[in-house]
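ok trying again, last paste got cut off:
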Amino acid sequence: MLQKCRYIFSLLLIFTFGLEGHSLLYKVSSKKNTVYIFGSIHLAKPELYPLDEAITKAYENSDVLVVEVDPSSEVSESTMQEIMLDSGIYPSGMSLQTQLNEHTYGSLLEYADKRGLSLDEMQRMKPWVVMLQITVTEMIRLGYSPELGIDQHFLDKARSEHKPIIELETAAEQMGLLSKDDEAFQDKLLLYTLESMRELEPLLKRMFESWQKGKSDALERIISLPLDEDESLQEVYDELITKRNYKMSEKIEGFLKSDKDYFVVVGSGHLVGKEGIVSLLREKGYVLTQE
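nice, full thing came through this time. structure:
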């Protein structure tokens, strides 16, 4: 479970696959340096590699690799294991059946029946843990692997080359968002995931086509579909994506005051939209070009 959970925090909101023409690679420069921002996914397929030359050159020309979180660091692994044990399991007398609302629990029963799963093994898991397990399991079923994710690819490369690695967030911050002690939030988080699973394969296909052509607007529309259909999911989206975008854009702005060049890898869902990292930086007067 820990191996699966550490790679994914909002998988349906980020996507990349093949590369052709423009990609979600942006370049922004200050008087002192250049920062490359690359939209990626935490799980990918073998067909993704080798990466486009523009992406490879951007990484090679940078002095520092920046990722959301380095999940394989000792600190991250220890933190995630601790949070999973402390905040991922219901105490005695509580379960998914007693805590989820009827609609969400019914959707979970439907999903489990479709996949031939026993809910007995999940009952004591809190919704955010079930969400992680379901999402990663489905992605792996469709051929995506965490070992082939863009983040992991560059982390492995940076370590082998002794290139400095910076994290935009900590494992505690990311898992704290998911393990939030709010029953309504937890319920919506799981329901959002279960409803997304019904259309996962065609959804990924559409996202791939949009990403492949570098159409950030189309990608944004796909990502926002659940919000258009159910406004109550806005809270989940704001917590997992929007609020983090503001914090990450501030840190990226800080990099632009350095004399080093940075290659920043974040989930594609963080780049698009009016409150995405790209728009937030442009609002502050920075000129970003899509490579």
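cool. DSSP finds 13 helices and six strands in the chain. The longest strand covers residues 34-40.
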